[in-house]
Amino acid sequence: MDINLKKLIPFVSKYKKHIYLNVFFNIFYALFSTLLMVSMIPTLNVLFGLNKKVHEAPVYKGIGQIKGYAEEYLNYKITVLTEVNGFKIALLFVISIIIITAFLKNVTNYFASYHVTRLRTGVLRDLRKNLYAKIINLPVSFYSEKRKGDVMARMLGDINDVQNSFFQILELVVREPLTIIFSIVTMFIISPTLTFFVFGFIPVSGIIISRIGKNLKAKSVKAQNENGIFISILDETLGGLKVVKGYNAENSFIEKFNNSINRLLNLSNSIGNKNNLASPLSEFLGIVTIAVLLWFGAQLVVEEHSISSATFITYIALAYTILTPAKSISKASYQVKTGLAAAERVFTLMDEENTIVDLPNAAEKETFEEAIRLENINFRYKKDNVLDNFSLTIPKGKTVALVGQSGSGKSTIANLLTRFYDVNEGKITLDGIDIKSLKMKSLRDLMGLVTQDSILFNDSIKANIALGKPNATDEEIIEALKIANAYEFVKDLPEGIHTNVGDSGNRLSGGQKQRLSIARAVLKNPPIMILDEATSALDTESEKLVQLALENMMQNRTSVVIAHRLSTIQKADTIVVMQKGKIVEQGTHDELVALNGTYNKLVMMQSFE
User: Fold this and answer.
1) Long-range contact list for 502-510, CB < 8 A, 24+ apart?
2) Which InterPro entries does this entry report, sorted A to Z (predicted)?
């Protein structure tokens, strides 16, 4: 069994009741499909006047004689009806058998489909729930290496392929094979000679169809990977549309997108051609078989008289009914290969190891009492250290600012304190406890984060601010907005705190978005605040408002401020100057200016108001 099929079993087993009922109704569907063809024999016999006259009810002699008993009893009923009520009533009787059988076939078909639908949609939901939980729990580092579009393609496209393809297996292993088996058994009962003749053609058909389906799974994997690439290009285009237009790069992106969808077109055509060939090929091979049967069977009817013409017509009809399930099996087997390729991509993501997790005995911590210490830490994203034997103490209630050129490791410290990444060597402690020994939820509950990019979601202002405190009242939210200097513009909005901010908050200015981000941190009210270049993307006027909001927020809190604009951190208790992952200077603003070193050079490069 394919490994991805095994991984799907836990998702399917939850819905085993629907599987059992689907199998149950499919068995009866296959049975009534065969009986529907068999019921043509008495109808044809009555039409052509070929039925045997039987005037006495036959005696049942056991399962071994069931065929003879059924024929005799039916002939007896037709004889009685014809002689007592006339030809029309007898014909109506045999036609009613066809109608009842057709009704039962279609009722069982409906209930079989009903249960497989419940199975498919249930498994689809559970796969999406599990995959989304995996996506949201994987560390930030995972997404620095993967395309977002590829992850989206696995969630949107590949899971649908799994749903649409894998559950063909139930028809592949139950409904269609049973329809074929019941038909072949009935054909064998009618004429063993003709049936053995048919068997000679089935292996040949199977070999031809399987050859055509070769390499289908590999091509499906390529097509699904390409689908991820084109979604990524679309995502990047929408995210960076201003840059694309500003640099007149539309044609470059159009070319990149068109190249991707052309590759996808070629792969899809190749896969589609093989899928499309499955059904007509199996039908053609079946028709060839029936044509040969007509030639061979006609001799049995006309020359040898070993089979009646009505029975032979029914036999041909039964042989033809095998074609539909055979076509379904060949088509479904191709689709299953596509599903296997999709499942491989889905489960590869589900099996992705989360390297940043809680230890089995991780502790809860609800308060911050003393200090945060970074003790001889080394950290690297790939090969070279970004932080090199770095040590720093951040006492409770103090504001520590980190400054330095881009690439000096400032933002990395914010990522390590929040455990978006883990240190390679050394340790970070909170009140003497290694943060790896704390539950991540507990650690992050103690911290508020305001980033350079004001990340807002397409929801109301209230929902965005209440992210860290979902049960917050309107009054608490308004108070947080006031501290963040944001209420002055929020109160003038059409729906106040219930106003939708748009996609990524694009209905607001940069300064307004940043103040809402600060309000979100204020409402959470954590003892430790981490500000990662919170004002660097703002104009001077917005910066002043945001800076005032930050100062309001940082009162009586421990703050780690990562700053590009030195004007925002002059009041910090300690300023740490970093260069290539090491501390080169440390002290207050005045002390560092007096040193006339690296910090003073940075100050001289920037103008203060």
Assistant:
1) 502/458, 503/458, 504/455, 504/456, 504/457, 504/458, 505/454, 505/456, 505/457, 505/464, 508/456, 509/542, 510/454, 510/537, 510/538, 510/539, 510/542
2) AAA+_ATPase, ABC1_TM_dom, ABC1_TM_sf, ABC_transporter-like_ATP-bd, ABC_transporter-like_CS, P-loop_NTPase, Type_1_exporter
pLDDT band per the 50, 70, 90 thresholds, residue 427: very high
The number of beta carbons lying within 10 Å of the beta carbon of residue 339 is 27
Residue 26 lies in a domain: yes
Task: Note whether 439 and 371 are within 8 A (CB).
Answer: no
pLDDT digits (tens, 9 = 90+) for 457-494: 888 889 888 888 888 888 989 888 888 888 888 888 88
Domain harbouring 250, CATH code: 1.20.1560.10
Q: Which residues constitute the domain of residue 280? A: 3-350
Residue 534 falls inside a structural domain: no
What is the domain count for the chain?
1
Highest mean pLDDT among 26-30, 66-70, 405-409: 26-30
CA distance 501 to 317: 65
- 459 token code pair: 């929801």
Which residues, in sequence order, are CB contacts of 289 under 8 Å at separation 6+?
198, 201, 205, 319
pLDDT digits (tens, 9 = 90+) for 345-381: 788 888 888 888 888 888 998 889 999 999 999 998 8
Residue 251 CA neighbour count, 13 Å, CB half: 1
The sheet carrying 528-532 orders its strands as: 447-450, 528-532, 558-562, 399-404, 574-579, 582-587
Amino acid at 378: N
Q: Is residue 593 part of a domain?
A: no
The pTM of the full predicted model, rounded to 2 decimals, is 0.72
Q: What is the dihedral of CA 312, 314, 317, 319, to 10 degrees?
A: -60
Give the H/E segment covering residue 435. Answer: none
- For residue 103, the model assigns a pLDDT of 92
Cross-strand partners of 119: none
Please give the structure tokens belonging to residue 518: 């600060």
544, part of any domain: no
Tokens representing residue 458 in the block: 């397409």
Residue 173 DSSP code: I
Q: Mind spelling out the 3-state secondary structure of 516-575?
A: HHHHHHHHHCCCEEEEECCCCCCCHHHHHHHHHHHHHHHCCCEEEEECCCHHHCCCCCEE
